Amino acid sequence: METEAQRSVSSRAGRRNPLQIPKDNEALLHGGKVSHDYSMGLWRRGFIRSTLIGGIISILLIFTVSLIRIWTCQSSTSAFSALCSNDSKVNGVLNTIGLVTPQHRCPIPLASDPDKIVIPEGRTSDEVVQKLSYIVEDSSIDSGSQPLFGGNITWEQREEYFKIKPTMELHCGFISGGGEKMAPKDVVYVKKCRFVVASGIFDAYDTPHEPSNVSKRSKSLFCFLMVVDEVSLEFIKSNVTIREDSDGGLWIGIWRLILLQHQPYDEPRRNGKVPKILTHRLFPETQYSIWIDGKMELIVDPLLLLERYLWRGKHTFAIAQHKHHRSIYEEADSNKRRKRYARPLIDLHMKIYWFEGMEPWSPLKSTLSDVPEGAIIIREHTPLNNLFSCLWFNEVHLLTPRDQLSFGYVVYRLHKFKFFMFPNCEYNSIFTLHPHIREHSSKVEWVKTMEEFKKHPELRESRGGFGLWMPYPANLDSVVLPAVSRTSKAG
Asked: Which of 180, 190, 209, 337 is the most exposed, fewest CB within 10 Å of its CB?
């Protein structure tokens, strides 16, 4: 006999709507096929589960890396503590994949007393390039035309210059009659300068900023040379007090003003690259130089900089890592967005490099980055470094004036050139940045298509970048540039 409870359950079962399907079976319809809604439900649950697991793994990975980094930083073993250094490659890779956030400024591990620094005797020997000479007369120019400052370099010559030999002769700016003439009084003065801090102001964008924290020893060792053009000198004279010495030299504080007459280019950005890159040509007797852009105020003793970035690690060339970009193709994309030069010409510049084998930066490369912060360059003027500077300038002369695009390419081509790329956070601790007096702008920077150049040929530069207009020895029409992923909103 059925109990009362059993009859109640049976009755409810009998009253169930025949269209209702048990939950465990409702997905099985039409001969066992799974419904679309049920499949989507399974997919959503799987996706959520995978996302949660991935998030947990990522958190554990970051936590593990952080613990390892803390341990290495506090380790008494030098091999482990070196991994914690801001300029270590491990730290750079962790920064690249987002596991270490780069600092804007960080302390520079400077020596404590500039008076106790031992300056190396003699010059660093160079077994790769022993003798370097420069072409000063350009035989390829047409009679009656003004010579180009950088010369009429052919693609064949450019290629030949990358083949290192013990004795080399090449174009390196300063073609006779091409511009950048220095007054005799300044030529005499700079001949005595073995140690130089150099800067430059062009087209009246800045006024000189007096360096601070300079020791008495550095003041006696270094020449502080501020290179200016005629426009900037007149602007400075009308706004800043200038002192004239008994030899006719012009001074603002510690800076000796060096006037370069007859600017070689009609683009001020390109003119500024002459003293920056070709420091060894302007000041041929100099052994060590520190370049700092005109908008910056140096706040670190220059002798301490040489000890930190050159002598301590036995380097001869030091430059900072770019804060945002490591690939020249990402830097080029940023230049286009910020209207630093004509977009189609930047693309053509990059197509040449891509065709010639320049790969985007990756952690597998031997350098921390292909893109430097070019506003500070610390170097000894060795023959190989001078060759690098010449080749770097030739790229700036032939192609776009964006020197950060060509630096990594020349490093790629000149395999034997070695340099120290120091952390960006240290770079930001070397100077105080001052705003330009006015913003730079030129017509060529706003050009978006090659059609605009065809309609308005006056937009083209007349003295530089001619490699972008002369026939390249290969068809670049089919060249497709590598895709760029923007890794920084700021960049």
From this structure: 337
Task: Pick the closest to residue 294 from 341, 224, 239, 194 (CA basis).
Answer: 224
- pLDDT tens string 266-300: 988 899 999 999 999 999 999 999 999 999 999 99
Q: Which residues contact 115 (CB under 8 A, 6 or more apart)?
A: 215, 217
- HEC string of 183-201? CHHHHHHHCCCCEEEEEEE
Q: Which residues contact 340 (CB under 8 A, 6 or more apart)?
A: 346, 402, 445
For residue 339, how many other CB atoms are within 10 A of its CB? 15
- Kindly state the tokens that stand for 345: 């010409």
The 10s digit of each residue's pLDDT in 120-138 is 999 999 889 999 999 999 8
Q: What pTM was computed for the model?
A: 0.81
Across the chain, mean pLDDT equals: 86
| Distance separating alpha carbons of residues 324 and 373, to the nearest angstrom | 10
Question: H or E element: which one contains 6?
Answer: helix 4-15
Is residue 122 packed enough to be buried (19+ CB in 10 Å), middle (13-18) or exposed (0-12)? exposed
Q: What counts of helices (H) and strands (E) characterise the chain?
A: 18, 16
Q: What is the torsional sign of CA 122, 126, 131, 132? A: negative
Q: Which of 386, 299, 385, 400 is nearest to 343 (CA)?
A: 400
| Tokens linked to 219 | 């003041």
Mean pLDDT of 404-427: 97
Tokens standing for 84? 């914690």
